[in-house]
């Protein structure tokens, strides 16, 4: 006989409050559904190890009618779970508990207790695909990778989401020779260079920075944003409009929408949802419509939900 429900809680082990949240949810799920066990899966510094851990849980519960993973962490944690959810059907509930919680914000989730109070409703969310990997918010290269290197763990802890903005200001005042340089068409370096390229399926990237304000659940498009090499004052102009949540108004930013495209050049490291990966450009980018089964807060009278 198939087992009716299988639950796992994947949590960011480097955050002490994430473990407390995980314990609270474990007790709630055991009590609510009368389960013998709800597995706690602690994250590690090794991304591939965590993916293998999730795959093992899924394979051991392959006969369950309902499989759900609660993700207690930030966008990077959601991204790791999405690598499995893209190819193995199960539901995700996101409990915001990280530096960047843009995916949770797009679902209208701000309180870590929400899933203790309600199952919410099931929705399908689009996924982005970069090469053989997946992203839930964005894939980027250039400045977005540099920002990871300019943020210390301590800065993330102290400043939270604002650590991204502080890192961005630091980048803008680095020497031109030390700035990012990405061939515009991926191979022909004579075509000019960008300092930043991003493919987004939601409004925000790290720390709530808006790059794709038009994104919603009915659009089914990818927003491609490119920032060419420019003088510092023009980059500050681009930053001004990004902070105003209107990047399309900056003459320094190239923006297009499509269902597929390319990102990076052969020298570019690709980051996914704010975490640097081993993926190198150029990579093909595409959208997988409804590729993720996610539980969200119940919203009434919503027809086009902002991502």
TrEMBL record:
Domain DAGKc, chain residue ranges per copy: 70-140
Protein name, per record: DAGKc domain-containing protein
Q: Under the GO molecular function aspect, what terms does this record hold? A: kinase activity
Sorted alphabetically, which InterPro entries does this protein's record hold?
ATP-NAD_kinase_N, Diacylglycerol_kinase_cat_dom, NAD/diacylglycerol_kinase_sf
Q: Which domain of life is it from?
A: Bacteria
């Amino acid at each position: 006989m198939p087992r009716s429900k299988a639950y796992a809680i994947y949590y960011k082990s480097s955050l002490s409050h994430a473990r407390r949240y995980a314990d609270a949810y474990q007790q709630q799920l055991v009590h609510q559904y009368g389960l013998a066990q709800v597995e706690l899966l602690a994250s590690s510094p090794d991304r591939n190890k965590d993916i293998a851990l999730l795959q093992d849980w899924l394979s051991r519960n392959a006969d369950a009618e309902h499989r759900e993973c609660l993700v207690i962490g930030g966008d990077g944690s959601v991204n790791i779970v999405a690598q499995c959810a893209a190819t193995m059907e199960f539901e995700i509930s996101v409990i915001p508990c990280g530096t960047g919680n843009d995916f949770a914000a797009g679902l209208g989730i701000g309180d870590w207790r929400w899933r203790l109070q309600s199952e919410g409703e099931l929705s399908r969310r689009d996924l982005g695909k970069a090469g053989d990997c997946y992203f839930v918010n964005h894939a980027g290269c250039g400045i977005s990778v540099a920002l990871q290197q300019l943020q210390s763990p301590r800065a993330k802890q102290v400043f939270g989401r604002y650590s991204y903005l502080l890192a961005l200001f630091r980048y803008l005042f680095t020497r031109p020779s030390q700035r990012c340089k990405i061939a515009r068409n991926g191979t022909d370096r004579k075509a000019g260079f960008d300092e930043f390229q991003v493919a987004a399926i939601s409004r925000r990237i790290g720390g709530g920075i808006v790059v794709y304000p038009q994104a919603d659940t009915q659009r089914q498009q990818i927003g491609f944003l490119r920032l060419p090499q420019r003088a510092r004052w023009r980059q500050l102009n681009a930053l001004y409009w990004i902070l105003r949540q209107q990047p399309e108004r900056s003459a320094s930013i190239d923006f297009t929408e499509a269902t597929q495209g390319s990102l990076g050049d052969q020298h570019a490291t690709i980051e996914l949802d704010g975490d640097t990966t081993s993926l190198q450009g150029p990579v093909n980018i595409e959208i997988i419509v409804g590729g993720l089964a996610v539980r969200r807060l119940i919203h009434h009278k919503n027809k086009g939900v902002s991502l």
